[in-house]
Amino acid sequence: MQFSTLLLTALASVASAQRTWVVTVAQNGSLTYSPNKITAAPGEFVQFQFLAGNHTVTQSTFDKPCQPVAMHSNATGFHSGFQPVAASASMGMVPTYTIQINNTNPLWLYCAQGRHCENGMVMVINEPATNPNRTLENYKALAAGAQTVLPGNATVGGGTSGTVDTPTGTTPGGDAASSSPAAAGAGMLSAPAIFTLLSAGAAAALFL
Ligand SMILES: *[C@@H]1O[C@H](CO)[C@@H](O)[C@H](O)[C@H]1NC(C)=O
Ligand SMILES: *[C@@H]1O[C@H](CO)[C@@H](O)[C@H](O)[C@H]1NC(C)=O
Ligand SMILES: *[C@@H]1O[C@H](CO)[C@@H](O)[C@H](O)[C@H]1NC(C)=O
Ligand SMILES: *[C@@H]1O[C@H](CO)[C@@H](O)[C@H](O)[C@H]1NC(C)=O
Ligand SMILES: *[C@@H]1O[C@H](CO)[C@@H](O)[C@H](O)[C@H]1NC(C)=O
Ligand SMILES: *[C@@H]1O[C@H](CO)[C@@H](O)[C@H](O)[C@H]1NC(C)=O
């Protein structure tokens, strides 16, 4: 475990060069992503911190909200899977899911739990500037009349799951790279081999 701790520390310092945007999920138990509109540059990370309940962050197309993007396009997209907070909370940890932004294409996102998407639990990364109809407001309006489809396991992936002990939700959308090494480090844990070393217990020890 010593070795993996050293490795993670090394990765975290590398990661501090890359900006990580923090989006809190279900702040105050609400059906929200906060902030729900961010602009992120290629290479940057977006880390979702699940604060309550049992939610997902799942990619759809603009035209078909609440349905996995793979159903309506050739993109695989990403899906965090369900992130029940209670189990981690009892260990003082918060589940996270971190994606890397590869380009400036818009990413339309929803929660696949129950009717959360229909009820407005949606967000956008890189809302397009060139098409005035493709706004978060219009996406939310379409979602209100949609029907949630659960992604199968095939679309789980595209991001990295983890935990942090100190949610940085007090500065939503803030620059986690400078304020929270733990958050930025989690963003860099993209190698599954490394990540499996980071059991919840090890994570707790590491971030004490
Ligand atoms: C959560 O509660 C705090 C304090 O009342 C408030 O400032 C914040 O806007 C709330 N967040 C959301 C997403 O509603
Ligand atoms: C998606 O795949 C289909 C079938 O392979 C193809 O006809 C279509 O052109 C592709 N669309 C895009 C946007 O690449
Ligand atoms: C989270 O929600 C999913 C989908 O509704 C459900 O299958 C799963 O059992 C829930 N997990 C917990 C711990 O409640
Ligand atoms: C925007 O929506 C309006 C009303 O549905 C439509 O008439 C218009 O063509 C759309 N504009 C674009 C750029 O898609
Ligand atoms: C999910 O993955 C498991 C294990 O790989 C597989 O047995 C199961 O059939 C998959 N379920 C769906 C809905 O694809
Ligand atoms: C960025 O590219 C990586 C590697 O191809 C992929 O795993 C990831 O899902 C992509 N990110 C997004 C947001 O699609």
From TrEMBL:
<keyword id="KW-0732">Signal</keyword>
<protein>
    <submittedName>
        <fullName>Cupredoxin</fullName>
    </submittedName>
</protein>
<dbReference type="InterPro" id="IPR052953">
    <property type="entry name" value="Ser-rich/MCO-related"/>
</dbReference>
<dbReference type="InterPro" id="IPR008972">
    <property type="entry name" value="Cupredoxin"/>
</dbReference>
<feature type="compositionally biased region" description="Low complexity">
    <location>
        <begin position="162"/>
        <end position="182"/>
    </location>
</feature>
<feature type="region of interest" description="Disordered">
    <location>
        <begin position="154"/>
        <end position="182"/>
    </location>
</feature>
<feature type="signal peptide">
    <location>
        <begin position="1"/>
        <end position="17"/>
    </location>
</feature>
